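Hi R.,

As promised on Friday, here is the backbone we talked about, encoded as structure tokens. Could you run it through your design pipeline when you get a chance and send me back a sequence?
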């Protein structure tokens, strides 16, 4: 069962990582388009800044779980690398629990914000009038996946600790 959940979370992470990469590419193309329109044709657009901001929000939040899964988030390796295996696993497990709790709280708050935006039909205060639930849903999706990824890390560290204990506490 746990492996199925892990596979689903990792597939979602990978998919959103790819989509985020494409979002960054789109953002670059949109900004280049705006530069050409503004400075070559003297005809600036009214939509590029807003769309670029929404793409930025989505790419950063949606890909954060993929970044955590691949071990590319900022962490204090200087300290962790000097720890013995058991203490390192305990520290990583503890930080995983703290990360999961924090991300769960943000996820709950994001859910409430999203529900309010949908319930009240909130739109951006710009000429595009984008329904705010679209950019806000990145917060919910990103933090739910981060919560799940942190929980998978904690479970993995507990499993590693158990395996280490079965070896008689030998360092890995």
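Update: got your reply. Pasting your designed sequence below so it's all in one thread:
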């Amino acid at each position: 069962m746990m492996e199925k959940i892990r596979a689903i979370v990792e597939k979602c992470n990978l998919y959103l990582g790819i989509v985020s990469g494409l979002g960054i590419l789109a953002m670059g193309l949109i900004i280049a388009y705006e530069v050409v329109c503004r400075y070559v044709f003297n005809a600036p657009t009214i939509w590029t800044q807003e769309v670029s901001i929404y793409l930025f929000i989505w790419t950063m939040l949606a890909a954060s779980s993929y970044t955590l899964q691949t071990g590319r988030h900022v962490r204090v390796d200087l300290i962790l690398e000097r720890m013995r295996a058991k203490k390192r696993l305990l520290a990583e497990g503890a930080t995983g629990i703290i990360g999961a709790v924090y991300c769960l709280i943000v996820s709950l708050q994001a859910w409430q914000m999203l529900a309010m935006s949908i319930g009240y039909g909130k739109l951006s205060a710009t000429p595009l009038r984008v329904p705010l639930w679209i950019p806000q849903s990145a917060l919910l999706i990103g933090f739910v996946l981060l919560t799940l990824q942190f929980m998978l890390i904690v479970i993995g560290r507990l499993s590693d600790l158990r395996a280490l204990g079965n070896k008689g506490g030998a360092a890995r």
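One thing I noticed while checking it: The mean pLDDT is 92.

Thanks again,
M.
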